[in-house]
Amino acid sequence: MKQYIFLAFSIIVITFNSNAQSKDNPYAGKTFRIDNYIGDKLDNSEDLVFTNNEVEGSICVQYGFKKAKYTTTINKKGLQEFSCTMISKEHGKMVWTGEKNKNQISGKYLWTKEGQDPIQYTFKGKIK
Questions:
Q1: d(CA 59, CA 80)
Q2: How does pLDDT run across 38-53, given as a tens digit for each residue?
Q3: Contact by Cβ (8 Å): 111, 92
């Protein structure tokens, strides 16, 4: 009987912790389908995948950009904002900032790489 009570208690604690993490971090466990633009021109589309503490772009990984730890804050508009820096040994770095508004996401990132001019992207998308 004690084993069943312990098991039930463990399930409640795990469920509570999962819900608490989701409320504190509205990105955790979400995948967004985003369109990336240079100026007004669509460059590509990819999935931006968030775990509890890391984010990964489906196209970015093809160029050696590793998962990046991200931080969240509340911005002046009252929306949850994220920021991160993705690094690739061969292709430089990308500094991302974005905000989530309900099921929508938007923002920008700057790609810098030695030997090329920096490229400023904007992105927008929605939860997948």
A1: 24
A2: 999 999 999 999 998 9
A3: yes
- Three-class SS of residue 19? helix
Per-residue tokens: 2: 């004690």
Tell me if 79 is assigned to some domain.
yes
With a cut of 90, say whether residue 19 has pLDDT above it: no
Let me know if residue 101 belongs to a domain.
Answer: yes
Owner of token pair 């389908």: 33
Separation of first and last alpha carbons in the chain: 43
Cα–Cα distance list, 52 to 25, 41, 94, 104 (Å): 7, 32, 20, 18
| Confidence tier at 24 by pLDDT (50, 70, 90) | confident
Task: Please give the average per-residue pLDDT across 72-82, as a whole number.
Answer: 93
Question: For residue 11, is it within any domain?
Answer: no
Could you tell me the residue range of the domain that residue 105 belongs to?
Answer: 27-127
